[in-house]
Amino acid sequence: MSSTSYRTLGILTIAQAFAQCAPPVVVLLGGIVGTRLAPDPSLATMPIAFMIVGTALSTVPAALLMQRLGRKTGFMLSACSATLAGVLAAFAISIAEFWLFCLATMMIGSNNAFVQQYRFAVAESVPDTRVGQSLSILMLAGVAAAWMGPEVAERLHDVGPWGEFSGSFLGISALMVIALIMLGLYENSDLPVPQATEAHRSMFEIASQPLFLLAAGSGVAAYAIMSLIMTATPVSMHTVDHFNLEDTTWVIQSHVMAMYLPSLFSGFLIQRFGGHQIVVLGLALMFACLLVGYIDRHLIHYWGSLVLLGVGWNFLFLGGTTLLTRTYRPEERFRVQAMNDFMVFSLQACAALGSGYILLGFGWNWLLGLSVPLLLILIVLFIAAWRTGDLIPAPAKAAQG
């Protein structure tokens, strides 16, 4: 790796550590604030759902904006927007305006669509053989975010000028300013685009590849299941089962750290065994998460289920992202990245939108059961990709030949 590659990876890792603090805060407090402000109890998790809808709606615009203006401009504009969103959320709490609060969380979600592009910026700056390892280092930023975000939210929840929890969201704004400063040091990586020697491929042709379906399906399953369960957990723990805020914070912090801490070694596992093997491991962990959550709703079951959910998400998402980079040519990257993220975050938004309704209307076990079909579909996609031989990288195929 060149010094430029190391610099890009270092800057974006630090920036992501601060930029990713906002979503865990919304997950922790969105449902709790929602129960106080919502006109109807069934809308309690709507702020979290709006955050994810904001991500889904912004995936395509984010990719197109950065294609035209460069990644640095896109990253910095979105960080400015997220800084304002924290202030808007605090103000909405002060005037008890539920839908304004939802708008603020949607803006936070929109920033997340840009933050998701950090991984592609890193992938484009390193050799193909180092993509998995570099992505795992980048994802370690989430470990810091898992601690900083909820910690700032809890410590400032009763010190804001506009009522309880307003300080938590003002804290988000302060963290986003630090991310903005780091992004000022980032430089766009000009990925060389060779002259096309093959026929232009339509999006349908690209999306029809079994390997693309597996890569995108891994991301969809990772985010949809994570969103369905994680969105409901604070409400289920704090509102339904009456655990205190400290216990709820601990479970969410543990979950978010479990999402990113495996990146200490998952990149090396991908380099050693391949992205498809990591997807299989992620599938097994997701099934284990559902089983532990189904057994009971004591603190240890919430904690164990959410930790398994986090590690399973890491393996599915990182393995899927690594596989995705093998499905497109350099000149196709923005279109394919946008299509993949739109699919992933649209279905995540659907899961988040239905999470509160399912939890309060049918219960925790129904919520877990609805995750099973997604995992079964992913198994089918894996088998289809395996039968075509797409899971074996081209160099390995040549060596076998």
**Alpha carbon gap, first and last residue:** 29 Å
Question: Which bin fits the share of residues in helices?
Answer: over 70%
**Beta-strand percentage?**
under 5%
* Uncertain stretches of 5 or more adjacent residues: 394-401
| Total strands | 0
What summary fits the major beta sheet?
Answer: none
Give me the secondary-structure category: mainly alpha
CATH architectural group: Up-down Bundle
CATH topology: Growth Hormone, Chain: A
Question: How would the blueprint of this fold be written?
Answer:
Layout: H1 3-19, H2 22-37, H3 46-69, H4 71-94, H5 98-115, H6 118-123, H7 131-139, H8 141-155, H9 166-183, H10 203-207, H11 210-240, H12 245-260, H13 263-273, H14 275-295, H15 299-324, H16 333-362, H17 364-369, H18 372-388, H19 394-400
Helix pairs in contact: 1-7, 1-8, 1-9, 2-3, 2-5, 2-8, 2-11, 3-4, 3-5, 3-16, 4-5, 4-9, 7-13, 8-9, 8-12, 11-12, 11-15, 11-16, 11-18, 12-15, 13-14, 13-15, 14-15, 14-18
Description:
This protein is mainly α and 401 residues long. The chain has one domain: Up-down Bundle (Growth Hormone, Chain: A). 79% of the residues lie in helices and 0% in strands. The chain is built from 19 helices and no strands. Helix 3 runs antiparallel to helix 4 and helix 8 (141-155) runs antiparallel to helix 9 (166-183).
